[in-house]
């Protein structure tokens, strides 16, 4: 019985090392270069909304969050949180911390629509 259990565990670990997980949601043609692909034509992705960057314990490079204290999207890169990379264009009281950057140009084009 013990040998059978060891064999099953060994096979499970061996098989698991060859498996590559990809997730596609509402897509028939999953891109081989992605881990997650969203394919809905009428739904969107919502980032995790946090009170502020200090509430995220053990951040990892590449993380994206929506910082509710600054009403914007931030990314964790080079072991620190970025400034706002996308501000809420629908909030007229929110000023871009990076005037003249690409994000403010995008915001202006959205507001003109």
UniProtKB/TrEMBL annotation:
Q: Where is this region: Disordered?
A: 91-113
What ranges does the record list as Polar residues composition bias?
A: 98-107
Q: Which UniProt keywords apply?
A: Signal
Q: Where is the signal peptide?
A: 1-21
Q: The organism sits in which domain of life?
A: Bacteria
Q: What is this protein called?
A: Uncharacterized protein
């Amino acid at each position: 019985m013990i040998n059978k259990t060891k064999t099953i565990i060994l096979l499970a670990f061996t098989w698991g090392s060859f498996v590559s997980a990809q997730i596609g949601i509402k897509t028939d043609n999953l891109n081989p270069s992605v881990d997650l692909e969203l394919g809905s034509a009428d739904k969107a992705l919502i980032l995790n909304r946090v009170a502020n960057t200090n509430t995220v314990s053990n951040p990892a490079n590449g993380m994206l969050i929506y910082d509710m204290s600054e009403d914007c999207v931030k990314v964790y890169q080079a072991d620190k949180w970025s400034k706002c990379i996308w501000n809420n264009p629908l909030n007229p009281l929110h000023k871009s911390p990076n005037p003249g950057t690409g994000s403010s140009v995008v915001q202006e084009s959205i507001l003109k629509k």
